[in-house]
Amino acid sequence: MKLNQKIKLNSKLFGDVDKVPTRDGYGKGLVELGEKNKDVVVLCADLTESTRSNWFKEKYPERFVEVGVAEQNMMGIAAGMALSGKVPFVSSYAVFSPGRNWDQLRVSVCYTNANVKIGGMHAGISVGPDGATHQALEDISITRCLPNLTVIVPCDWIQGKKATIAAGQATGPHYLRFGREKTPTITCEETPFEIGKADVYADGDDVALIATGTMVYESLVAAKELEKLGISAAVVNCHTIKPIDVKTITEVAKKCGAVITVEEHQINGGLGSAVAEVLVENHPIPMKRIGMLDTFGESGSPDELFKKYKMNSSEIVKQAMQIVKTKK
Amino acid sequence: MQFKKITSEKQLKLIANSIRQNIIKSLVEAKSGHSAGPLGMTDVFTALYFNVLKHDPNKPEWPERDKVVLSNGHICPVWYATLAQAGYFPVEELKTLRKLGSRLQGHPHYWEPAGIENSAGPLAQGASIAIGMALAAKMNKAKNRIYCLTSDGEHEEGQFMEAMMFAGNNHLDNLCFVVDRNNIQIDGDTENIMSLEPLADKYRAFKWHVIEVDGHNLEHIIDAFEETKTIHNMPTVIIAHTIPGKGVSFMENDYQWHGKPPTVEQAQVALIELEAERKEIQEE
Lengths: 328, 284
Description:
The complex is a heterodimer of chains A (328) and B (284). Chain A is 37% helix and 20% strand. Chain A has two domains: 2-16 and 192-326, Rossmann fold (3-Layer(aba) Sandwich); 20-184, Rossmann fold (3-Layer(aba) Sandwich). In chain A, helix 3 (71-82) packs parallel to helix 4. By secondary structure, chain A is of the alpha/beta class. Chain A has helices spanning 22-36, 53-59, 71-82, 102-111, 139-144, 157-169, 215-228, 246-256, 271-282, 302-308, 313-326, and strands at 2-3, 19-21, 40-44, 64-66, 87-93, 117-121, 150-152, 174-177, 182-184, 199-203, 207-211, 233-237, 240-242, 259-266, 287-292. The longest helix of chain A is centred in the first third of the chain and has 15 residues, at 22-36. By secondary structure, chain B is an alpha/beta fold. Chain B has one domain (9-283): Rossmann fold. Chain B is built from ten helices and seven strands. Chain B has helices at residues 9-30, 36-40, 42-52, 76-86, 125-139, 158-169, 190-193, 199-205, 218-228, 264-283, and strands at 67-70, 146-151, 175-181, 184-185, 188-189, 209-214, 236-241. In chain B, the strands form two sheets. Chain B has a five-stranded parallel beta sheet, with helices on both faces. In chain B, strands 4-5 form a two-stranded antiparallel sheet. Chain B is globular, with a radius of gyration of 18 Å. The A-B interface holds A 41, 62-63, 65, 67-68, 70, 72-86, 88, 103-104, 107-108, 111-114 and B 69, 109-110, 117-122, 124-137, 139-140, 158-159, 162-163, 165-166, 169.
């Protein structure tokens, strides 16, 4: 397996890899940003600890706003603060924000082009036992269709921290997607991260695994398995869903001739759709989307759910074997 | 340079009359849009921009300015006409309302033109935006005040209740809402569609100071705004009792004028009526 040496991934990637929730990166990023920029403010709707906003609150209580259980109001307040020069971070579960306050995101934030950042926690099916109501599996679809909005899904907590800081330093609305569960640390502090630039984590010739968020790790594990089976798989971390990196996706597609997208999200409207749009217009080749297959989730442990709903390395291996056969 | 306050009631009435005429002219040109709300709120807008606000049309981005947020965006013809009257942009531009390429969108877009402090359309969103501005001002220890103009019907939105609760809970005394209490909404009378009464008590229960005023008595409107500046530790709402379509006899109090513009003939009649009113004011 040809790991990209320039990327400097965690040396313990396939060994005793440490696991941390990506949302910790949000909390740590906010604290760092808060120190650098006194205009950074954090808003939360009664989920301060879950969203890790409590770390910011402890350090900068005067810049923390508790809005109570009122996500629509929170998004609007953030817009008003942004129009007054603040850099507000709206923090809640992704099912509520941008789920419940999408209209406020659309008009008060995106149409206005207000400098608001949205942190959506507990995204994906890995929130597990809470069940379908709390598993945000549509948030990428409903955000990436909005003009002016950048959409980022970090692959681990370190990238989560970098993405939070980068979003805070950039101008305009940004949506950041995080998970609750502890997931493997893939990257290091030195690993490059740039909004809008997909990174090739492993080189390959037979099939490209284009993944986002926590599914980047599953794709790396799958690529290692595939190597044993004689298939050379490239792994791309497509952390920015919008603007999508057309250049990198097209290049890797040309090289591999087949693409599989992997995401903890509905296959309709998410990363899979975004990549399909790029390929259809630039370089149509065989493609398969791995993700939630147009169904709601249910309660269960994350591993049980990943297995049942076919979002893990063994499913990626299976699909890769099949798609390679369809190549001309 | 702060905009000079106009204190003469006669002068303010003449300004309101000009704004009403310009609303009719822009709506008839646009061939779509809302008539009743803008005419009903003209006196409140006149009081704000020509007497109450600390602002400067030549320097719209002045950081110390008071801000006006319009939550019920559909009455923007009165906002545009008032800003033009105050010198934010040329009055002639009002004729581009709702036309392709115009800055004067059917529902307002932030800073198009300068002076438009928020985007609005979906009801209740302005209420939260105004709260965000008031919070930011508090954090910055700024002295400016935030005024949010709202419709009565939009109080039916859940977001509006969230906003009312937050502002009272957070003692935002630099924030003032104005309710355009005209008792109509698209489908009919508010009290038949979804009763809002007792509206004043609802605000009081949410820890607001409440003032009720005749929304067409300029002196009383200005007094109400002055009173809001003296209230500490709580936000203030001015419930302005208005007549939808005010100033044009066949539009007044008829909810069917909520969402339509006058025809060319109707506009001619409206302008004749308003011109007659202008003469009366001049002769007062």
